[in-house]
Design a protein that fits this description.
alpha+beta, Ribosomal Protein S5, domain 2, 4-stranded mixed β-sheet, 3 helices
Length: 131
């Protein structure tokens, strides 16, 4: 029995090359969530694709692997609920490893929604530059 086509994680929905990751990070919008930086960029109408990066600064191998596994599973299960035509890169934030799968799902869905609707909300406050 073949798996449901909406439930797989085939090569067509993954970012696989360094150049693809860099294109999204350099040419896309960024949204910050409690556990991730999420970059998104329109991909010209192709299916939504995902790339996940977790550096050693986040934790030991078992923690990094768990975060990547949860991110891929959240994308796989909720791919049809994500806005179409986006390339997404999730970068786990240092020292803020997600403790629950549900956190990853919620952050992925809300970040993709914010990116699709025109990017993150404008920043408030902060320091002004002097001229």
């Amino acid at each position: 029995m073949s798996p449901d086509p909406g439930q797989g994680f085939p090569k067509q929905v993954r970012l696989r090359k360094r150049a693809e990751y860099l294109a999204v990070q350099r040419g896309g919008a960024r949204v910050t969530t409690p556990h991730f930086l999420v970059y998104g960029r329109p991909n010209g109408g192709r299916p939504t694709r995902l790339g996940v990066t977790v550096s050693r600064k986040v934790g030991r191998a078992h923690a990094r692997n768990r975060i990547k596994r949860w991110a891929r599973e959240a994308f796989r299960r909720h791919r049809l609920a994500l806005p179409p035509g986006l390339d997404l890169v999730l970068i786990a934030r240092q020292g803020r490893a997600a403790e629950r799968y549900e956190d990853v799902v919620g952050e992925l869905l809300s970040a993709a929604e914010r990116l699709q609707s025109g990017g993150p909300p404008p920043r408030r406050g902060g320091r002004r530059r002097r001229r």
